[in-house]
Amino acid sequence: MIPVANVYRMMAYAWSALSAGPYASLSAEEFENHADLMAAILCRGVADQARRGFSKAYVLQRRQGQLPRGRLLTGPTVALAARGSRDVVCEPSELTADILENRAVKAALASLLGADVPSARRRELRNALALMPQVTSVGPRQALKGLTRRRTSRTYQALLAVSSMALSGEVLSSQSGDARARSFLDDSTMAALYERFLLRYFQREHPELEASAPHIPWDVDAPDPQLPLMRTDLVLRTREGAPRTLIVDAKYYGSNLSSRFGKSAVHSGNLYQLLAYVNNEAAREPEAEVSGLLLYAKTDAREQPALDRVIGGHRIRASALDLSGDFAVTRGQLDAMARVLA
């Protein structure tokens, strides 16, 4: 189980806005659980956006009346005329805060109201909801379905990201049929956060390296649309000196090793996938030293991945990143990865 404080640090790297602005003082707070953490972030974010003004967009609104305004809808207007009405039906576009993104934030606040959060936080949630009377209330499924995350400010992006995480947990709990069993941060949500955290950590802490998450092209004689995309989680490249490339495949599982006949081994599918990434990247970048790393999030199991071999001329490793204790330990492991490329 990852401590809530470390989850916050992962979020702060994943969405750098959480390290500054209205969220800056959150780093000194202690949170009871993940729901409490997300509630604190959303309450701060909504209060800040209320001062700045909520994001708005032009939305088509159907209107019926005698004065035409906006785009005339011929079919409904003719139908009214057939019944003797002089009204016309139009679709004017209006600038409004009642948009999908704000509905998602409001739905997330409402979902956290029903979670196990302290009474003081519950009051903050109610106050935050009171700041959004112009926004329509929708259920978590509808809010998630319409969440598009348009190009917005960094603080708004963080707000939408945390709202999405809260809503995903709410949908998951409703499927289980036990509202008291909400985790809000299930494995799939944590896996996505883990991947984003790793990328943003190296981009921020190790500018001497080029950190990205590109698609690796297949080394084929001709493109084929049926070939699956090779989407990486993290690729680190040296900017100076000898060209070195490390392809990192991030894995967040309940079990990091497979077991058969009493023998533990790295998941074969993970290893085959990483080898495909490394081999195709090496073919594209023949002058570089290309290696691969399966980086699992450490679990409570006694045995953890510890593979380090040269396969097909490339160094291939599998190890576990400790996210369960002092974050300085996590930082030390990640910094050691950077030193391998130095």
UniProtKB/TrEMBL annotation:
A Pfam family this chain is assigned to: McrBC
> What protein is this chain from?
5-methylcytosine-specific restriction enzyme subunit McrC
Give the organism the record lists: Kribbibacterium absianum
